[in-house]
Structures are given as structure tokens and as C-alpha cells.
Amino acid sequence: MNRLPAYTTRCTSSCRTSAGLGVSSYFGEIVEWAGFALACRSLPAAAFAAFTFANLGPRGAAHHAWYIQRFEDYPRRRRAVLPFLW
């Protein structure tokens, strides 16, 4: 039977992979859909990009807050979703 590793409160190397962002994949997806909306120049594409941000922004903030609460050595100055802003 496979055993899961013991839960740790230390921030491992996976916590430190993104450069200044808590959830860099969410930021990348927001940028992708914003670029798609600019390329299409259509209202549905712009709406999809806006709703993607409206969905992933709060999710990223909650994920970031969980990391701050759970890991004692998590970088406190790291932003959640948008570099240098949020």
C-alpha cells in the first residue's frame, strides 16, 4: 500500500518556483485569454476574458492566503495573481 508523505508546515522548493507570484499559472491563463480577446476583437471573447479574471482572481487570492496561513516560511511579500499589484 502506498503511503502519503507526512504533512509539513515548511515551504518546500515547490513553494518557491514562481517569480513573485503565488499562483503564476492563473496569471498566465488570464494573460492568454486577454490576448485572445485582443486578437479576436469580439464581445464574446472579451466577456470570456473578463469572466476568466473574475473567476481566477479571487481563487488565486484565496490560494495565496491559504499558503500564507499554512506555511510559516512562505514569502509574505509575494503577490497572489498580478505581479506588483495583487
What does this structure look like?
The mean pLDDT is 79. With 86 residues, the protein is mainly α. The chain has a domain at 34-69. The longest helix has 28 residues, at 43-70. The protein has helices spanning 24-40, 43-70.
Mean pLDDT equals 79
Helix/sheet category: mainly alpha
Largest sheet: none
Count of DSSP H/I helices = 2
**Rg of Cα set:** 16 Å
Shape: elongated
Give the termini separation. Answer: 42 Å
- How much β-strand is present in the residues? under 5%
Compute the number of strand runs.
0
Low-pLDDT windows of residues: none
Order of helices and strands: HH
The percent range for helix content is 40-55%
Secondary structure layout:
Elements: H1 24-40, H2 43-70
